[in-house]
Design brief:
This protein folds into 3 domains: 108 residues, D-Maltodextrin-Binding Protein, domain 2, CATH 3.40.190; 81 residues, D-Maltodextrin-Binding Protein, domain 2; 94 residues, Porphobilinogen deaminase, C-terminal domain (Double Stranded RNA Binding Domain, 2-Layer Sandwich). Helices cover 34% and strands 21% of the residues. The chain has 9 helices and 11 strands. Helix 8 packs parallel to helix 9.
Length: 300
């Protein structure tokens, strides 16, 4: 997936700058290498980005391509988020062996996902399902599904589509059932703060509307100090110059779920995200977060 996304960015940049050569370097991250444990058990923030950021700061690469949903809200000194791509489909997708939809999955059906956010929302919506952790790249997940280890799996629709596997999608889950991760569907490009040439080059790639919408979602996430251990969802979209931002925090078992919406000028995206975070905290999200973190727990 990461290689496909990086090649996609390289191809698009080559079209914008035909006289510049772009070379893709593959860098393995902790999240890529450790596949035998749930993501939340091997750390919290930056599992798929730390090694790329180090290579960027060391001058090994000029820019780093990430799935924006994997990028921590705190950026290391010397690095800037230089561009956000036009968004793909933001929804989560169900791929089932026999069922035709989430609603037709039989009680007790085994549903695989690596995301606590997806798991919590599905536990809230379908308490009768057997939701299990599932790691590995998409090919590995599909093989486990086809081999009968799972009755269905959940993944980001954007990733499935970028790999050209959209024909496997059984159902796109509405955001009313499964609110996506902050930044889901967008690619982020980081550059060194002092690399003016690369930063200037990336301005032509940046989608201002996607930057504002995902910025609001990430401001919501940042104010809550959330990471992969916390079931947090957010989705913003522009409507006639305003942003409509939905935010959600859930307990791991899906028994408690706090969700709310805020609207305001799109240019105030950061303020909107932070205000919505304060709103859900007042509605009970703070109790959920304290329960998950526990007393004295490290937050990554």
């Amino acid at each position: 997936m990461a290689l496909r996304q990086s090649n996609l960015i390289a191809q698009q940049l080559a079209q914008l700058y035909p006289h510049t050569a772009f070379e893709v370097q593959v860098i393995k991250t902790t999240g890529d290498l450790v596949l035998d444990r749930p993501l939340a058990d091997i750390g919290d923030k930056g599992l798929f980005v730390k090694e790329l950021q180090k290579a960027l700061l060391d001058g090994q690469i000029h820019l780093a391509v990430h799935s924006l949903k994997d990028l921590p809200t705190e950026t290391p000194s010397g690095i800037v988020l230089a561009a956000v791509s036009t968004r793909e489909d933001v929804r989560d997708a169900l791929i089932a062996r026999e069922a035709t939809s989430l609603a037709t999955l039989a009680p007790g059906a085994r549903l695989g996902t690596s995301s606590r956010r997806r798991a919590a929302q599905l536990r809230c919506h379908r308490k009768d399902l057997d939701i299990r952790d599932l790691r590995g790249n998409l090919d590995t997940r599909l093989r486990k599904l086809d081999d009968g280890e799972y009755d269905a799996i959940l993944a980001a629709a954007a990733g499935i589509r970028r790999l050209g596997l959209e024909a496997r999608i059984t159902e796109y889950l509405p955001v009313e059932i499964s609110l996506p991760a902050p930044g889901q569907g967008a690619l982020a490009i980081e550059a060194r703060e002092d690399d003016d040439d690369t930063r200037e080059m990336l301005t032509a790639f940046n989608d201002p509307a996607a930057y504002r919408a995902t910025g609001a979602e990430r401001a919501f996430l940042g104010r809550l100090e959330g990471g992969c251990q916390i079931p947090i969802g957010a989705y913003a979209r522009e409507r006639e110059g305003n942003l409509v931002l939905d935010g959600m925090v859930a307990s791991l078992d899906g028994e408690r779920l706090v969700r709310s919406t805020i609207r305001g000028p799109a240019d105030n995206w950061r303020r909107l995200g932070e205000d919505l975070a304060r709103q859900v905290l007042e509605m009970g999200a703070g109790d959920i977060l304290r329960q998950i973190w526990g007393p004295g727990a490290a937050k990554g």
